[in-house]
Amino acid sequence: RQKIAKVTKLATNMNLNPNFFHRGVVLEWGNPVPAIVVHLARGEHATLVADYQQRKVIEIFENRDSEHTGRLSKKVVEELGLPEAFFATPEQQEQAKDFLETVSGNDVHLPDFIRYSSILIHPLLKESLFKANLASFGITTHDSQQEKEE
What we know:
By secondary structure, the protein is of the alpha+beta class. It has helices at 51-64, 74-79, 82-85, 90-102, 110-120, 127-134, 142-149; strands at residues 5-15, 20-23, 26-29, 33-42, 71-73, 107-109. The strands form 3 sheets. It has a two-stranded antiparallel sheet. A two-stranded antiparallel ribbon has the order 2-3. It has a two-stranded antiparallel ribbon with strand order 5-6. Strand 2 (20-23) and strand 3 (26-29) form a beta hairpin.
């Protein structure tokens, strides 16, 4: 977790923005509010998918790794169609292709698969689009389970 972001500056401050509040019928100025300002710089792992998306990417990997070897061939990874499923831009697709070429051997291990997926899944991709495309990989979501029950 320490490699996601690095604190570059930590400072205290007073927030002097207009702060109004109601006291009965009268509108009054509020007191200045103390604040702590934290400046962060991106770390080594800042570009990796996290939490929910990472769990689902791992599920995609595990579903394709039927022999539980912890590896997928590069051909299988390319045939998954992650760029199309997660609406990767041409630049992202090129970066992902270059990354796969740098992976040694013919197999992709789980950490490399997560990095590959992280390149293809844009940080601003809507969660609803991400969840909608998981079904094409045979992955269920909590939302889809609720819809089936209704």
